[in-house]
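Hypothesis: this fold can be encoded by more than one sequence.
Test: take the structure tokens below, design a sequence, compare later.
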């Protein structure tokens, strides 16, 4: 996760005084949940070797997900492993749509970009 700028929903309840900050980690959790339920995605992947080592040392629950805040919007980068034999472009498009929908529904802010990087393919053993 990068850019730890506090995030405030665009239309907070008018009668509620106070401020709501949503952490990049919370948004990454929502994105990870959506990705894990997407057809053709078999796992998340680190974006590079250093991220992979850091993820292992820190627990890596959000491995392969970067959340960036741009003013009043969100940009998400997903690094995934896709099932061999699936149409990669369809899996990536479906994943981006699912993540955008889930994050926008949960947070109430627009997701301007969901970038999907396919880091590898996994071949399931035919049984």
């Amino acid at each position: 996760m990068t850019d730890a700028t506090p995030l405030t929903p665009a239309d907070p309840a008018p009668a509620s005084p106070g401020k709501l900050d949503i952490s990049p980690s919370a948004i990454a959790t929502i994105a990870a949940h959506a990705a894990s339920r997407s057809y053709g995605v078999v796992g998340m992947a680190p974006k590079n070797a250093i991220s992979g080592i850091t993820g292992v040392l820190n627990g890596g629950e959000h491995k392969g997900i970067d959340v960036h805040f741009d003013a009043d919007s969100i940009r998400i980068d997903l690094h995934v492993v896709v099932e061999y034999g699936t149409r990669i472009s369809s899996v990536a498009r479906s994943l981006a749509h699912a993540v955008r929908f889930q994050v926008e529904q949960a947070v109430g802010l627009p997701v301007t970009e969901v970038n999907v990087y396919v880091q590898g393919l996994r071949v399931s053993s035919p049984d």
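Residues 5 and 22 are 9 Å apart (CA to CA). The domain at 42-122 is CATH 3.30.300 (GMP Synthetase; Chain A, domain 3).
Hypothesis status: open.
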